[in-house]
Amino acid sequence: MSRWLALAVLSTAMLMTILDGSIVTVALPAIQHDLGFGSAALSWTVNAYLIPFGGLLLLSGRLGDLIGRKRVFLAGNAVFVAASLLAGLAGTPEMLVAARFLQGVGSALASSVVLGILVTLFTDPAERAKAIGVFSFTGAAGASIGQVLGGVLTDTLDWHWIFFINVPIGLATILLAIRALPAERGAGRSAGADVAGAALVTAGLMLGVYTVVGIEGHGAGQTLAYGGLSVALLAGFFVRQATARTPLMPLRVFRSRNVSGANAVQILALSAMFSFQVLVALYMQRVLGYGALATGLAMLPAAVAIGGVSLFVSARLNNRYGTRAVLLTGLVLLVAAMGWLTRVPVEAVYVTDLLPVMLLIAGGGLVLPALTNLGMSDARDDDAGLASGLFNTTQQIGMALGVAVASTLAAGRTESLLGEGAPGAVALTEGYRLAFTVSAGLLAVAFVVALVVLRPATRSSARAPQEGRRVPS
Predict the structure, then answer these.
(1) What pLDDT, on a 0 to 100 scale, did the predictor assign at position 331?
(2) Does 106 fall in a domain?
(3) How far apart are CA 317 and CA 261, in angstroms?
(4) What pTM was estimated for this model as a whole?
(5) Which terminus of the chain has fewer CB atoms gathered within 10 Å of its CB, N or C?
């Protein structure tokens, strides 16, 4: 079988997952009009997807190690395709929200094991760097492509097609995956069938994601109560893993400084990068008056820059200078991009005020592949699915946390200025500036953590997941 065909299958599945998280955003007004969503209930079109997605990643990754990552990947894609068809056919708000929840379940199953499969297929450091560059491109570009594609489909056809388009792509992915992905039996349920641990981590993560995505609608007391309960459930999970005979998540995975550090850096960096994508889009629409399609096109240079660096530059730099040095360089570029946005004016000129940011954000094309390499570098073969699920979980936590916190800060600043009599555009811009300042700070902290905690990945650790096993090509 061809490992590169397998990489194409894995990347396509990940692209669908990322697309589905962003393609809906530009279609929300049309969905609200057609199905009669209330303003508050409309957010559940997005949240119903994010909660199971973020909550089930870790469990799904471990299931891949136990029963076989190919099986979990195929099952996830099958659920996702069926749920996409239901979402496209939805005629009521309840049906759409239920379908979106099922899409989140399918996405969690499929995406949780992708990196685990990838690192066991590509054992040579140079080849793995190239493969991760391609994989990172699909993730980095997917969100921006989703905004453009969502605008095109909604304007030219109708919003139902943002879900229908997943069906033929998903079916093709399943058929190719059956042929291209290596078969594996897994370690067996006896190696980690920890039901109590599974219940604790799933409940804790789902409640945590729910708390984060709903932070704007919750009062302070409710947010603290939900957040506290989520932390208590996750603490109980870690206690359980330290004492269980067959833990769901062996704590040895955290002994690696690179695994722990890369996941910590990812939460900080993705918090800033995803809030950049959402808030810049809002700034262009609410302050500059761009339409949905124009906003997507204006964001396209960022996707092209990140994708170009991921595909053609990151692997060479990682092999020559090391992933840690490349990661630090990328974080510096991202800090510069956010710093540029802290001075964004009310009447911006795209070429001078926004385009430089879209180019500097290419630093993400260095950061994401380097983090993936470091986060998976010390994963053992029997823990590759778990490490993959953990890495995807911290990615989702970072994205959800970043948007929730940045949006709340921006809204609070805007409301305060409006109360003082400031013009609407000025108040909105100042709110976004505050959010971009905080994002720049998060990236600066990520730089410090990467500098202090991470160590260069060695050649031996890069081969660790497949030591002694040859994968046919």
Answers:
(1) 95
(2) yes
(3) 21
(4) 0.75
(5) C
